[in-house]
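Model it.
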Amino acid sequence: MVARNPALPDNLAESIAAIFDQVQLSLANHRKNCVALYKLHQQAAAVTQTGSNGAVVRLVGERKFGDAFIGMVNRVLVVKKGSATADRVIRFIGSYVKFVNEKVSAEKEKAFKDPTSSISARLEDDADDTIASRFVMRLLNWLLAGFPAKNKTVRYRCVCIVSDMISHLGEIDEDTYNLLKDGLMDRTGDKEVFIRAHAVTAISKLAGSEGPDEVDPGEKTILEVLVDVLSYDAAPEVRRAALISIPLLPSTVDAVLSRTRDTDALTRKLVYSNVLQSKLEHPRQLTIAQRELVIKDGLGDREPSVRVAAGKLVTSWFDVVLTEPSETEDFTWNGDDGGIMKGLLRFLTLFDVVGPGEAAAVDAVLSVFVTRPNIPDAFVFPESYWKELNPESAVLARVFLEHCLSEKNETRLEAASLPVVTAFAFLLQDSYNALLNVLQDAENVAFLNAGEPEDDEEEVEKREEERAKKEVILGELLRMSLKLDFMDEIGRRKVFTIVKDMVAHPELPPGLINPCLDVLKEILPTERELIRVVVEIIVDLREDDQDINDIETGLLGDPDMTQTTITKDKSSRRVKPREDMSLDERLEADITDMRCLLLCIGMLERVDGSFEDNSTLEGILTDLIIPSVKRKELIMREKGLISLGLCCLIAQNLALGSFQLFLGQVQNAPEELKIRVLQVIFDILIMYDEEFFSRSDDIAQKITGYLVQTLESEDSALIQTVLCVGLSKLMLAGIIKDPKVLTTLVLTYISPNTFTNQELRQCLSYFFPVYCYSSHNNQTRMQSIFISAFDLFMRIRENLDDDQEMITPLQFGLLLVDWTNPQKSAEMLKTELQSQAPHVEVAADILGVLYDSERSDEVLKVLCQLLGHLYLAPGLDDRSIHKLNLLLSHHEEQSPFSDDSVRKIFDRFYSKFAQMFEKEIQHINPGKYLDEEFLELYNFIGVDPPEENSGCEETPSVSSTSRSQSLVPSDVENSTEVPSLADESDEGTSSPTPGPQAQQTSKLKMTTKHRRKAPASPSVNEQSEGEMSELVTPVASAVTPKRKGVKRIQTPGSATQTSPLIRKKTRVNSARKTRSKKAPVADDESEGDATPTKAT
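Modeled.
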C-alpha cells in the first residue's frame, strides 16, 4: 500500500508564477518573495511517497516544485540580452539560492543545538542531503545542459544564472564540480563576447576552491585560464571582467599590471581605481620596479580619466605611509606641520631615488601636490634640514621649489625659508667636498690593494652606494641652483667658482657634467663666455704635469706674464705624441680625451651661435674632435662623430664638407654607432634642407634613395626605427616630397617583418594621420600611391611565410581610404569641390584598375568594396562627374566581371552614383571635355570620343541587363563649368613621369591582350571601326561605339619609378597611374593653366 503525506497545494504552479511576475517588476520585493517561495518549497518538500516495502521515499512534492520553478526559468532563457525584466528574474534566482541555503544552514545549527528534535536525527543520518542541496543540484545540472546550446541567448542566460548562484551553491559533489568547472572553461572560449565575460566572472569564483592536486598534468588551472584571458582576449569587456575578478597574487600581479598599457582606456582606469585601490593593502606588496611602473604608466597616460585615477591611487599610498608608525629616522630636524614632510620622505623611500626611479618618485610627489593642494603650505625648511641631506630630502626640496615656481607662488617660497644664494653656494661646497671624500677613500682603498680585487664585496657595494647617494644629493642641489636669483653678485661668483672647479676636476662623475654646464650657462652672460670657460678647462685637462709646472714657473718668474697671456699660449694639442707614450700613459690619455669629449658634447648642445663667431672652437675641432673620429676604438669614434655632428649644426660649410663622411660611417659601422650617425645625418638634413634638397634635384634624389635603400635592407629593429622617425620628420616638414618615400613607409608600417617593432609602428601610426590630415597636398600625395602601394602589398602578401601574419587587403585599402578622407583634413578648403578631390581621384584610380583583365576576382572584389567607402557628396564638379561616369558606364561592355558577387558590389556603387548625380549627368555636354586628359581617357577605355562642338551630347550606354543610365543634351551656354582639379597642378621637375607629349606618343601603342570581352553578338564584334562609325550619328547617338583592339597602355616610368616590383610583364599598366603620379608635385605649381596636363 502507498502511504500519502499531506497533499500538494492545488495552485502550486500558479503561486510560483505569481511570484515570478512580481520579481520582474522591481528588485525591492525580492526578499519578500524569497520568503514566500521558501514557504511553498517547504510545503512541497513535506509531500512524499513511500514504496510498498517502506524503504524508498519518493520526493513527489519537491519534484513538482522543481518542475514549476524550472518552467519559470525556462521562459527567461530565450529572452535576449538587454531586457531589464529578465535580468531581475535572474537576480532573483541567485537570491533565492542564497536564501534557501542560509535557511537550511540555520535550521541545521538549531537542530544540532537541540539533539532531542526529530529533525536532528535526520540530519545526523544524512547531513549533506537537504532540500537546498537537492534543489540546487537539480537546477545546476539543468543549467549546465544549456551551456553547449546552439542558441547564443540560451547559452548567455544559462551562464548568467550560474554566475549569480555560484557563490551560494554550498557543498556539491565532485562530479558536479568538475562538470561546472569544465563547462565554464569551455564558455571562456565562446565566440560571443558577453558569454565569455560572464563565464570569466563565474569561473573566477571557483579559483579559491581549486586545489593543486585537482589539476591533471597538462591541464591549465583556473588562475592560468584567467591570466590568459586577461592578456590575450580580443574583447575589452572580457579583459575587464577578468581584471575585476582575478585575485591579486604574486603569480597574477604581473598580468594585472600589464593592463596599465591596455588599448582600452576604461580597462587601464580599472587597474588603478578598482584593482590596486581595493585589492592592494599596502604599496610595499609590490616590488620597487612594479611601483615605478604603476606611476610611470598611470600618471603618463594620454587619457585624463586614467591620470586622475592613478593620482588618487598615489595619494592613497601616501596616506598609508603617513599613518603608519614611524620607524627609526635618520633625521632629527623639526619644523613641518603634522609630520607631512617626514611622511613625504618615507613616501619617497617607496621608489629608487638613487637609481632610475627618480623620475617616477618626482611624478608621484607632484601628483600628491596636485591632489592635495594644501600640503605644500606646510613646508618649512629649518637650517638643520640642509645639514642632514639625504637623496630623498634633496629630491623633495627640489620638487617643492620647482612646483612653487611653476605656480608662481612666491609667498609660499618665502614662508618655506629657503637659503639665499650665498648660503646655497656653501651648501654646494659642502656637498662637493663630501663627494670628493668618498672618491678619495675609494682611490686610497684601490691604492692599498695594489690593483688586486677586494675580497669583501659588501664593502665595495657599500662604497658604491654611498658614492651614488652623494652624487644624487649634489645633482639635486645643482638643479636647484638653476632656479635661484643670481642678482646677488657675491653669491653668483661663489657658485661660479665652485661649479667651475667641479667641471675641471678629472674625477667628477659624468652624470654631473650636464647639470654643471647648465649652471654655468645660467650664470655666464653670453654663450661665448661659456665656450671660453669650457675650452680652457679642456685645455687644462689635456696638459701634462710638466706643462703645468712650466706655466707655474713662468708665471712666478715673469711678473709681466698674465693669466690672459698664458691662456692664449695654451693649446689643446698634446706636446708628447701618442706614439711616444707608454701603455699606461695612453690609457690615461684616453680617459682624459673621453672626458674632454663629454665636456665638448655638453657645451655644443647648449650653443646656438655660429661656429665662425667662436674661434676658440677651431682648436678643439682640430686637436680633439677630428683625431677622435679617426680612432679605431668604437667609443672614442662615437663621441668624436657626435661632437663633429654638433659642430656641423652651427657650421654650414663644415656640414657640407663632412656629410659624405657620415654617410660612409653608416655602411660598416656597428649597430650602436650606426644609430648615432643616422641621428646626426637627419639633424644635418633638417638644419640645412635647402642646401641638400632645394639646390640640386640629383643630390636630393641620391640622398632620398640612399635613406630608402638603407631602410629596406636593414634588419636591426632599432635602426629601422631611427630611419622611420627621421624620414617621418622630413616628410612632415615638407623637405621630402618623393612619393617613393611615402610608399616605403606605408609598406614598412604593415610589413610582417616589423610586427614586433612596436616603437616603429607607434611612430608611423602617429605619422600617417598627422601627415595626411594636415595638408590637402599631402592627401593628394597619398592618393597618388594608392594603386601602387596596394599592388606591392598584394605582392608581399603572396610571399608570406607560414609563420607570418598580415592584415587583409580590405583592411589595408581601408587604411589608405581613411588617410585620404577629405572630411578629416584639418586644412579648411574654400570649396566642396576641392575637399572631395582626393577621393574623386582614388575612385578614378580604382575604376581604371577594374578594367585590368589580369586582376583576380578577390582583388577586384576588394577594390569594389573600397568604392563604397569613398566620400563622394553632392556638389562635385561636372568634369569629375563626367570622368567617373565614363569609367562606370563603359565597364560592363568593355571589361565585364566574371564573378556575380563582384558585379553586384560594383552595380550598387554605380546605382548610388547615378542616383546622386542624376541631374548633373543629364546636363553634361561631352563635347566640352575633349582636352588631352579626356582623349587619353577615351583611348584608355576603348571608345571613340564624340565630335568636338557637335552641339549634342554623348549618351554612354550601360549593359542592357543591369544598367540603363544615359546622357541627354543640355544648354551649353547656361552651364557653368567648375575648374578641373587637373588645373591646380602641373608636373614638377622631380616627377619621374614624362611630359604630356611623351605620354601621348606612348599611348598610341595599343595592344589587344588580356581584355575581358563583353558578351556581345558576333555581328557587332565583327564590324570594323569604320563600319561602327557609320552607325553613329552625332545628334542621336544612343551608344558610344566600342573600338576593337583597344588596350590600356603603360607610360614609361609610371610604375617602375615607384618600386622595382611591378605587375606582370604580359600586360601593360593603366594610364590612370600616370595621372595619379603627377599629383604629389603640386606644391610649387602654378594655377590656372590653359590646358590640363593630367593624364588619365
